[in-house]
Amino acid sequence: MYPSRFAYLAPTSVEEVVAALGEHEGAKVIAGGQSLIPVLKLRVASVDTMVDINGLPGLDGIEQDGDTLRIGALVRHADAERSPLLTKRYGLLGATARLVADPLVRNRGTVCGSLAHADPQGDWGSAMLAARAHVVVRGAKGERTIAVEELALGPFSTTLEPDEVITEVRVPDPGPRTGGAYLKLERKVGDFATAAVGVQVTLDNGKVGQAGIGLTGVGATNLRATAAEDLLRGNEPTDDVIREAAALAAQAAEPQSDNRGSAEYKRNVVRVYCERGLRTAISAARAGEE
Amino acid sequence: MTQLESPTTPELHTVEVTVNGQARSADVEARLLLVHFLRQTLGLTGTHVGCDTTSCGACAVLVDGTPVKSCTMLAVQVDGAEITTVEGLVQGGQLHPIQQAFHEEHGLQCGFCTPGMMLTSVALLAENADPSDDEIRWALSGQICRCTGYQNIVAAVHRAAELSKEG
Q1: Residue B68: closest C-alpha in chain A
Q2: Best residue in B72, B76, B150 to probe A by mutation, most A CBs within 10 Å?
Q3: Is-above-0.90 flag for pTM?
């Protein structure tokens, strides 16, 4: 299968990318291309001009910058999977990286590209919702940051302007005593999630200081289980509290029945995975750095 | 069909790559996939098109040593890169250790997935000279074999690790 014809630009600076996106209507950014190329081949989508950002310098780093973790636009899933930084307090992100697609796709696909693609089945969207991340965006009007929660409007639709490109995602340092988990049910390696849950918990004197829960594949976008987070915050994470939070997360899910499972089944997977994820995250937080 | 889509002459881009140690160059359309560049432009048909939907890994090749699905990359994106395909494994008429190991351990039946399986295994062994069963299965988990049940492929990767150590 071939994509339909498009013009191709390979700029070498963010300014050139923004200019190219502004000049060419119907232009689209390509980073890893592991979602874009398949949809172009299937002709579900087409682009008039492809703007390849792989030649841009300085966007392939994962670094701790003060109280922010910065992940550049050309960081591949495999880079995230292998990063020693994405452990412990950032354990949610490391766990997510390992479960994105399959190893070959992870060698090409990027974290920021996944966020820009806004597939409700995407794993990074949920993880970054739970981690309270922001994306940094450059466009003709300059730079702005968008909370990941404000990024996706619906399936494959975002609040990015046509001339804007994500340059990095910023994850706030959740502090010590933080643990995370990402649990994903898939029929086979590389399949999209039947359902998945990303969890991050920070403890404060034995109680939950901060909790983030993101849901994958059970709504028109990745969803944040806000009521479950609210219940956890300020409470001791007892078995009863964990079970109740998991039940609230399941209520927040808006699954559809399809060939991966019925809506009822997926909702129950969310409940079970949320409970397991919370237990894993809390025990990691307890074992976490002082 | 192409003419119906666009009556204009397509814009061509020069791609210069090193494929299996040889410098190759061609003028290609931006939409040309890497797998078609290898098979049709360069005539290297050892790389197979399997599912053509980024699922099976039959088209895996090494780009600068990293295994990728060549059906999900554009030829223009490998400009300046070093590519290894299955044709590049044999050295001076001698089977590469991974080829010898697939032969000895019967790591293939129909052979369709084999080029991709071998290239990903080469990349794994370059990083990890003595991988465990789990590490091998993890590394190959993006690739589908419909014949072997994977058992002999895993055995072949272990055998290749031994052969590489024996030198």
Answers
A1: A104
A2: B72
A3: yes
Do residues A60 and A71 touch, judged by C-beta distance below 8 A? no
* The total number of residues written for chain A in this structure: 290
**Mean pLDDT score of chain B:** 95
Rg (CA), chain A: 19
Report d(CA B33, CA B47) in Å as an integer: 12
Checking DSSP bridges between strand B82-84 and strand B12-19, what pairing results, if any? parallel
Residue of A nearest to B58 (CA): A104
pLDDT digits (tens, 9 = 90+) for A161-193: 999 999 999 999 999 999 999 999 999 988 999
Buried/exposed code over B33-49 (b: 16+ C-beta within 10 A; e: otherwise): bbbbbbbebbebebbbb
On average, the pLDDT of chain A sits at: 97
Residue B48 has pLDDT above 70, yes or no: yes
Q: Which of B31, B121, B157 to mutate to test the interface with A (most CBs of A within 10 A)?
A: B31
Residue A170's DSSP bridge partners are: A70, A134
B142 vs A10, A37, A189: nearest CB: A189
Q: Which residues of B touch A41 (CB under 8 A)?
A: 33, 52-53, 71
Q: Which residues contact A6 (CB under 8 A, 6 or more apart)?
A: A40, A46, A47, A48, A49, A50, B30, B31
Taking CA atoms, what residue in A is nearest to B119?
A104
CA-based angle A86:A81:A171, to the nearest 5?
Answer: 35
Indicate the residue type of A36: L
Amino acid letter, A148: V
Distance from CA of A33 to the nearest CA of B (A): 7
Structure confidence at residue A289 as a pLDDT band (50, 70, 90): low
ipTM of the complex model? 0.95
- What mean pLDDT comes out for the span B88-104? 96
Mean pLDDT of B49-66: 97
Chain A: closest CA distance from residue B13 (Å): 9
Share of chain A above pLDDT 90, in %: 97
Q: Which residues of A touch B67 (CB under 8 A)?
A: 103-104, 107
Q: Is A104 on the interface with B (CB under 8 A)?
A: yes
Residue type, A69: L
Banded model confidence at residue B166, pLDDT cuts 50, 70, 90: confident
Q: Choosing among A104, A106, A119, which should be mutated to test the B contact, i.e. which has the most B CBs within 10 A?
A: A104
